[in-house]
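Input structure tokens:
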């Protein structure tokens, strides 16, 4: 994929830089007797391993006439395949329509739209056969759109071909023809199948290890040979399945690990702290499984796994302490009172606030940047008022120059606060009156409790 040479007068298209990603050794995490290497697929121009299949699928469809100049590409994607297809497709002049499940990170969706792709969001809580299942939805769109090409990564032989002809040979050369095991995840299964085909030819004894999110059916299939008709849910994006993809070759997988969301996200964050490598949620799953495998070995082995995509796609999730706490994946010390329900704590630096001397324009910009309807007004560490969007609108609606006014002259100072010890009935009464609960006492302001915070608390405690 990287042997096309541009003419001297024409710069190369960005997609010609896909592949030839670095292989680096993990040196600051406990790998037991093994050496663990990471293939940095995050260094592809679109930021993920799926750039490889985006290019392969498009070029195969062009070669056999399924995709003609000015045509339309349709695909169901967890985001990264869509970015690969949009990166290559838009440069080549194709319209790109993508269907994504609603659990995908905001960063992925924004990236797709920035590339000019048309994005349809559908449900992530339904399985194959349901009209809202993302693959069935995309297939239906492709059928209904004259001349559309359905990329269909889950069934397209150009998917594993990309890894058989590029990823596999790169690993073999970069490892000095010395690798004992490769840890992979399975989404469409293209990586596993392509690598299996390649290494059967050059290193038949190489062991494949599956990293599978808890809730996926694939580990059970490896362990028992049976396909479960029930699956769970998981927050990790891009890997794990509730079916066996048609292109999957699982015969070389001899060991499989079920990895929880907690282990996945913790491992991704640990990788950043220890090695400075910013990977996504599926990278955390692969790393957790790879470390387990390495630590179980009684003889030294050389093991390879992947940084599947860049962690910049998950800054609002994996690397966001507030989101992690909302999901129950990051714990804080419990106080045994209302402070435990506050989603964003002031004493932890998570609260966006203003001071009485700030302008209303400053307050508006902070509301807009953080998608907030109200801000606490803090003076010397104490809560002195609340400024909400209705206060702001009332003051500036007649003259935009009023944005220069001060928060202290506009804020609401008649505050109804709840002490941390007030309890759930008092909280419910406040929320039922349409108010946001302000948790404070004579000594300090702790934070705000919204209906969402209460729902999050109930989800965690009642499940």
């Amino acid at each position: 994929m990287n042997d096309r040479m541009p003419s001297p007068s024409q710069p190369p298209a960005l997609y010609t830089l896909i592949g030839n990603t670095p292989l680096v050794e993990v040196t600051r995490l406990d790998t037991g007797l093994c050496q663990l290497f990471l293939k940095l697929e995050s260094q592809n121009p679109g930021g993920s391993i799926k750039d490889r299949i985006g290019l392969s699928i498009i070029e195969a469809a062009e070669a056999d006439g399924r995709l003609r100049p000015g045509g339309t590409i349709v695909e169901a994607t967890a985001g990264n395949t869509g970015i690969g297809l949009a990166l290559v497709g838009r440069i080549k002049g194709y319209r790109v329509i993508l269907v994504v499940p609603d659990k995908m990170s905001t960063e992925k969706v924004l990236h797709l739209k920035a590339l000019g792709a048309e994005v349809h969001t559908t449900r992530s809580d339904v399985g194959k056969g349901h009209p809202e299942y993302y693959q069935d939805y995309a297939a239906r769109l492709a059928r209904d759109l004259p001349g559309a090409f359905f990329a269909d990564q889950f069934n397209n032989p150009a998917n594993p071909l990309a890894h058989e002809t590029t990823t596999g040979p790169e690993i073999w050369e970069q490892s000095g023809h010395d690798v004992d095991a490769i840890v992979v995840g399975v989404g469409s299964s293209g990586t596993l199948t392509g690598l299996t085909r390649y290494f059967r030819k050059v290193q038949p004894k190489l062991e494949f290890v599956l990293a599978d999110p808890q809730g996926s059916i694939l580990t059970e299939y490896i362990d028992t040979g049976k396909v479960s008709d029930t699956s769970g849910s998981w927050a990790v994006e891009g890997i794990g399945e509730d079916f066996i993809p048609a292109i999957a070759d699982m015969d070389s997988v001899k060991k499989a690990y079920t990895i929880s969301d907690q282990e996945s996200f913790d491992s991704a964050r640990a990788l950043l702290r220890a090695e400075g490598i910013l990977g996504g949620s599926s990278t955390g799953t692969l790393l957790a499984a790879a470390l387990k495998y390495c630590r179980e070995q009684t003889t030294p082995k050389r093991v390879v796994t992947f940084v599947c995509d860049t962690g910049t796609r998950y800054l609002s999730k994996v690397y966001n302490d507030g989101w992690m706490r909302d999901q129950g994946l990051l714990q804080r010390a419990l106080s045994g009172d209302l402070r435990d329900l506050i989603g964003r704590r002031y004493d932890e630096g998570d609260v966006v606030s203003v001071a009485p001397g700030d302008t209303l324009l400053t307050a508006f910009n902070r509301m807009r940047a953080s998608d907030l309807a109200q801000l606490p007004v803090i003076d010397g560490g104490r809560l002195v008022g609340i400024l909400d969007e209705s206060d702001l609108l009332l003051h500036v609606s007649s003259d935009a120059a009023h944005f220069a006014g001060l928060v202290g002259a506009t804020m609401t100072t008649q505050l109804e606060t709840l002490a941390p010890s007030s309890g759930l009935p008092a909280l419910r009464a406040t929320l039922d009156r349409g108010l946001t609960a302000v948790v404070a006492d004579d000594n300090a302001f702790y934070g705000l409790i919204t209906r969402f915070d209460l729902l999050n608390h109930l989800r965690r405690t009642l499940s």
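Confidence is low (pLDDT under 50) at residues 1-8. The CA atoms of residues 373 and 390 lie 9 Å apart.
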